[in-house]
Task: structure prediction
Amino acid sequence: MGLMISGVWSDTDSREVQADGRFVRTESAFRNWITADGSAGPTGTGGFKAESGRYHLYVSYACPWAHRALIYRSVLGLEAAIGVSVVHPVNREKGWGFADYPGATGDAINGARHLYEIYALSDPDYSGKVTVPVLWDVKTGAIVNNESAEIIRMLGEAFRAIASRRVEFYPEELRVGIDELNEFTYRNVNNAVYRCGFARTQDAYEQSVAALFSALDTLEARLEGSRYLFGERIVETDWRLFPTLIRFDPVYYFHFKCNRRPLSSYPAIMRYTRDLLDQPGIRETVHMDHIIDHYYLAHRRINPMGIIPVGARAALDGPPWSAPGPSGVH
Ligand SMILES: N[C@@H](CCC(=O)N[C@@H](CS)C(=O)NCC(=O)O)C(=O)O
Result:
């Protein structure tokens, strides 16, 4: 996969697989916060005031973590305030890069050919992984933050005065519950699918599959009695879960061997996924061509021949895509 060592790209393995075969994700490195007045946030340094046109997102349409940031930009109506550059889903020479592919863009901000150049511009000595999403400050030429969980929170909080839609996805009275369920869904769903796919022992794989499907059973039971995870209103946890749910049957089921049963066999989760998919601005953030091509063609270590299972595209004819919408309109 590769990483940077003292500001230079290296094809070295990022060493996220432990001696016992478990995949353990590295922590993100850039942790500053944009705030309404430019004061420092919970981590990092201050100086990043919310301003329209000042910040830029580097994303892959394939990546579920980057997808969260795109969803927030869309549902909050921040398209005019925050620009986006989209990497090529398949080209992996020196990590993520910019090249022609339908829907991918160049890098209009820095003219980079590879994403690692953006990391080097921000920190010429940077050592570590080069991941999307990246929230870039055009004004100071620095990465503000590369952790999706924090990026979505700051988009929701700091940009209230700039966002063209006022929606609160982290309401005061639900914060404790949201934080708790975020932790549960990150560990047992969002990151668990990667732990299944990147495990290098049977034991590590089976433990992850067990945790994943037990969590899906829990979520199914919760959603049988509730439109969204916290009742009638969509909150942060719903948007954090959605990118994993829509990738599940086309990708994770086959590619990451999350195949105890398809997600489409969970009726409440399917009804819920479809409901989220039907929210204004969401379909535009879902790019299944980037998603399918990236996982099957770029992850050559686990799919060496780059063969796309026929069931991957066939899954796009089933739920949540084909299911009737909540109002029966779609
Ligand atoms: N904790 C990070 C994880 C981001 C992440 O791992 N992104 C993946 C893509 S899904 C990545 O860019 N990996 C590096 C690579 O594929 O070269 C976040 O939530 O923002």
